[in-house]
Amino acid sequence: MRAPKLGPVESRLAEAAAERALLAVLIDPFNVEPNEAGRVAAEAEAAGADLILIGGSVGAGLKLHSVVRAVKESVSVPVILFPGNVDGVSPEADALLFMSLLNSSSTYWIVEAQALAAPGIKAIGLEAIPTAYLIVEPGGSSAAGWVGRAWQIPRAKPELAVAYSLAAELMGMRWVYLEAGSGAAQPVPVEMVTAVRRYTGLGVIVGGGIRSPDLARERAAAGADVIVVGTYIESGETSEKVSSLSEAVKEGSRLRNSF
Ligand code: 1GP
Q1: CA of 210: how far to CAs of 40, 157, 175, in Å?
Q2: Which of 51, 179, 235 is the best mutation target for the ligand 1 pocket, counting ligand atoms within 8 Å of the beta carbon and taking the most?
Q3: How does pLDDT run across 66-103, given as a tens digit for each residue?
């Protein structure tokens, strides 16, 4: 057996997240043209985004590659894929969240899509970051939850998020993505973020419905390592919004580190 070793992108993220929570800007390649994606990513980086995620629940087909290329040409922060299915893989990216939707009721989203994609990922040498993907209420009715046949975790049951996260940790995953669904009316509860942070050693990624600096600050303070924002930024004013979000995530991190 070869001892597992973190890839360069994951090492960089883990080291940076140990200092403070990171802000990820999510670009859905289905919604945007490559030039626009490059411009938004460059503005986001200049305003303080720590990484760019690219992906979505509905595949963008071959357009994914041109969006990833345009973003890569525009930024120096890591560009990481957030695949919605087997077609969410591109050799142009720096790494990929290799996700299993652990609370899906379909084995396809837990392991079959991953098995179908894995040989291709290995063949192109793309860094895969092992990540549990958990859909939290109200995410069951979001695109990711509906497509992924998620048996959503109730908002009032942080212990269930902890149980799934512990299972992920014992299975060797290193990150958990707590997802309330794109455009969610309510983001993942802070109590759930705190509980997963407290009872597991996983890196904690939180996304879905974070549409204000306050919501980002609270989740960074609760122990999130990465705060993901997509929809809020899609409506424009990228620089202003990312700058306020970045400040809020830094402030939240100071509270997190004072626990
Ligand atoms: C969705 O968690 C991401 O998969 C981001 O959600 O679009 O609501 O920011 P928003």
Answers
A1: 18, 20, 19
A2: 179
A3: 999 999 999 999 999 999 999 999 999 999 999 999 99
Q: Does domain 19-255 have CATH number 3.30.230.10?
A: no
Q: Which two tokens stand for residue 30?
A: 């289905």
Every domain of the chain and the residues it spans: 19-255
Check residue 140 and report its DSSP letter. G
Query: pLDDT per residue over 117-136, tens digit each?
Result: 999 999 999 999 999 999 99
pTM over the 0.90 mark: yes
DSSP H/E element including 9: helix 8-19
- Which residue, by CA, sits nearest to atom 1 of ligand 1? 182
CA distance 32 to 175: 28
Helices within 62-171 (DSSP H only):
63-74, 107, 113-124, 143-147, 158-170
End-to-end CA distance of the chain: 38
Q: With contact defined as beta carbons under 8 Å apart, do 94 and 128 qualify?
A: no
Please give the distance, rounded to the nearest whole angstrom, from the Cα atom of residue 208 to the centre of ligand 1: 4
Distance 232 CA to ligand 1 centre (A): 9
